UniProtKB/TrEMBL annotation:
Keywords: Amino-acid biosynthesis, Aromatic amino acid biosynthesis, Isomerase, Tryptophan biosynthesis. The gene is trpF. It comes from Sphingomonas naphthae. Pathway: Amino-acid biosynthesis; L-tryptophan biosynthesis; L-tryptophan from chorismate: step 3/5. This is N-(5'-phosphoribosyl)anthranilate isomerase. The lineage of its organism: Bacteria, Pseudomonadati, Pseudomonadota, Alphaproteobacteria, Sphingomonadales. Signal peptide: none annotated.
């Protein structure tokens, strides 16, 4: 079995991007959603994307984006799109066709039945991201530090390559990987000192925890 790798999401500064790269992150993520404390303009992200070395994948995070925003982020050089809204399989497939990029689709999970949504994205998305379902009325659909019951994934026949997200941090990521056998984990709030403020020491600790596995 391949060793697990990690994506550090919601980066917005060169210092924290460099910390993620130095620590061995396989993926780095940038958020393009105005309601998020991690939101940044595509034009600002372009400099960070260009700073990211080959071999580290760049991922743009969106919530029900329009084509104009997608086009601006693609022009900035992003390598993959991560969809966190209510994008249908048809919309997901259309964005894959429009951009030619890898598409991740977040599936919010609270119960075992929630996992079944992943099956409808077979042929539309490239990867599923299982994340904790947020409370009704939450302003943003992720990045809140919530986790779901990892044992729900036990025995589930994954329709696509997948990653695990939701409430991960340096102290619980080893347990999360042990329970789920995830090969890719995605962290945002778990490496922050405040909402939207990444902490280089927390990034280092998280990546060290993954590297030990």
């Amino acid at each position: 079995m391949t060793r697990p790798t990690a994506k550090i999401c919601g980066l917005s500064t060169a210092v924290t991007l460099d910390a993620a790269i130095a620590g061995g992150a396989s993926h780095v993520g940038f958020v393009f959603f105005p309601k998020s404390p991690r939101d940044m303009p595509p034009e600002a992200a372009a400099a960070l994307i260009q700073r990211t070395p080959r071999g580290v994948a760049t991922v743009g995070v969106f919530v029900d984006p329009d084509d104009e925003l997608i086009d601006r982020v693609v022009a900035a050089g992003i390598g993959a799109l991560q969809l966190h809204g209510k994008e249908s399989p048809e919309r997901t497939a259309a964005l894959a066709a429009r951009t030619g990029l890898e598409i991740w689709k977040a599936v919010p999970v609270r119960t075992r039945a929630d996992l079944n949504m992943a099956k409808s994205y077979r042929g539309a998305a490239t990867r599923i991201l299982y994340d904790a379902k947020v409370p009704e009325g939450a302003a943003i659909p992720g990045g809140l530090g919530l986790r779901f019951d990892w044992t729900l994934l036990d025995g589930f026949a994954h329709p696509l390559p997948w990653a695990l997200s939701g409430g991960l941090d340096a102290d619980n990521v080893a347990e999360a990987i042990g329970v789920t056998q995830a090969r890719l984990v995605d962290v945002s709030s778990g490496v922050e000192s405040a909402p939207g403020v990444k902490d280089v020491d927390k990034i280092a600790r998280f990546l060290q925890s993954v590297a030990r596995l």
